[in-house]
UniProtKB/TrEMBL annotation:
GO terms for molecular function: imidazolonepropionase activity; iron ion binding; zinc ion binding. Binds 1 zinc or iron ion per subunit. Zn(2+) binds at residues 89, 91, 246, 320. It comes from the Bacteria. This is Imidazolonepropionase. Gene3D superfamilies: Metal-dependent hydrolases (3.20.20.140), Urease, subunit C, domain 1 (2.30.40.10). Its EC number is 3.5.2.7. N-formimidoyl-L-glutamate binds at residues 156, 322, 324. InterPro entries: Amidohydro-rel, HutI, Metal-dep_hydrolase_composite, Metal_Hydrolase. Its cofactor is Zn(2+); Fe(3+). NCBIfam families: hutI. Keywords: Cytoplasm, Histidine metabolism, Hydrolase, Iron, Metal-binding, Zinc.
């Protein structure tokens, strides 16, 4: 059997009885190293499929009738399997919550970047143990909903010391760690934004860089201007750190064009785009990461995914899990929103939540289940991946496997290990 926890009792397992196996097929474009790291792809759906897991990776995929022998057999009884979701945008290192702010929004107040400062105060007051426990609990919550790869940003510390502990925790508890010292200008720098930018691009970046996979900037009215964003992006690039941006969330602005100009891995939010922004994304290897939970939770217009896809941009879906603009950890919820509200087909939404997220993180080993991929997958208590959007709000994930090991069970009555 495959088992939970750290122990692995079997090196080879065949997963069979899969009603429907939906897996992205990465399609790297030849002759471009950037494209190869951020592959486009297509969804392929196999019925009555099986696959073999060996040493935590997919070793074989094909019709169940032709499955090779293995040490262990896991029969899923007709359930669907999808690649584990890749949540490429989340802010998990924080303390406290902002339900009252959400209530105010739902009764007419607009979302502004300023609310971030409330969480900064709570985060600074919390000790490492508390912050780490919160991250762990959110990562576990994500796993119960099928997520196997998590990107986590800092951005609620905003002093050198608090950002360093945040990036360390992000690195230790999540798959990808992003330094977001440029989240908002903290209260003590009020009216001195440029001085804060100098702190971020100087000592703060210096201290956080060893632990960071990416540098992010919230380029937006109320956060950081184009000129300030450039200074921080330049500092990241000169250290050889790849960048990503929060761009065009609250209005049109320079964020998306900056992301493309700097070769950012992703431009995230993309809620308000001009035709030029769409064209720039389509021409680039920068992934457009859409976060529909934010529009839901801030009662804002949804980005138009159809426009981006039709133009040829690579699109990812992520939760943006954070205590302010969107406190959901559920990729299935985001998939359902994307299909209902953003003109994405169910196949496009699943692809964006798996291979799209992997592309946004520059990862080729996750987000799909072709031979050689990490055996990260979610078993649905449903016959087809279509149910992710067809049955919104229903906890369909029966079990989540990471590197072939069961890491979370969504429903106690489904015995995946037997
Ligand atoms: O992605 N936009 C900036 N940061 C987060 C919100 C953080 C907060 O409101 O606490 C976001 O929406
Ligand atoms: Fe965000």
């Amino acid at each position: 059997m495959l088992c939970t926890g750290e122990t692995r009792v079997s090196d080879t397992a065949v997963v069979t009885g899969i009603g429907e196996l939906a897996t992205g097929r990465p399609q790297p474009v030849e002759n471009s190293s950037l494209e190869a790291r951020r592959p486009r792809g297509a969804l392929s759906v196999l019925r009555d499929a099986a696959f073999v897991v060996q040493d935590g990776h997919v070793a074989w995929v094909g019709p169940a009738a032709r499955a090779p022998a293995a040490d262990t057999l896991i029969d899923l009884g007709g359930r669907a399997v999808v690649p584990g979701f890749v949540d490429s945008h989340a802010h998990l290192v924080f303390a406290g919550e902002r339900a009252a702010e959400f209530e105010a929004r739902m009764t007419g107040s607009p979302y502004t970047a300023g609310g971030i400062r409330t969480t900064v105060a709570a985060t600074r007051a919390a000790d490492d143990q508390r912050l780490r426990a919160n991250v762990r609990s959110l990562v576990a919550e994500m796993a119960r909903q099928g997520t196997t790869t998590v990107e986590c940003k800092t951005g609620y510390g905003l002093t050198v010391e608090d950002e360093v502990r945040a990036i360390r925790i992000a690195r230790e508890e999540c798959d990808v760690a992003t330094f977001l010292g440029a989240h908002v200008v903290p209260t003590e720098f009020s009216g001195r934004g440029d001085e804060y930018v100098d702190l971020v691009r100087g000592p703060m970046l210096e201290a956080c860089a060893p632990h960071a996979d990416y540098v992010d900037v919230f380029c937006e009215r109320g956060a950081f201007s184009e000129a300030q964003s450039r200074l921080i992006l330049d500092a990241a690039v000169s250290r050889g750190l790849p960048v990503r941006l929060h761009a065009n969330q609250l209005g049109r602005g320079p964020g998306v064009q900056l992301a493309v100009e700097y070769g950012a891995a992703s431009a995230d939010h993309c809620t308000y785009l001009t035709d030029d922004d769409v064209a720039a994304l389509a021409r680039s290897s920068t992934v457009a990461t859409l976060l529909p939970g934010v529009e839901f939770s801030t009662r804002s217009p949804y980005p138009d995914a159809r426009r981006l896809i039709d133009a040829g941009a690579v699109v990812a879906l992520a939760t943006d899990c954070n205590p302010g603009s969107c406190y959901t950890s559920s990729m299935p919820f985001c998939i359902a929103l994307a299909v209902r509200e953003m003109r994405m087909s169910p196949a496009e939404a699943l692809l964006a939540a798996t291979l799209g997220g992997a592309s946004a993180l520059g990862r080729t080993d996750v987000g799909h289940l072709t031979v050689g991929a990490r055996a990260d997958f979610a078993v649905l208590d449903a016959p087809s991946y279509l149910h992710l959007s067809y049955r919104p709000g229903v906890p369909l994930v029966a079990g989540t496997f990471k590197r072939g090991l069961l890491v979370a069970e969504g429903k106690a009555q489904v015995k995946l290990g037997e």
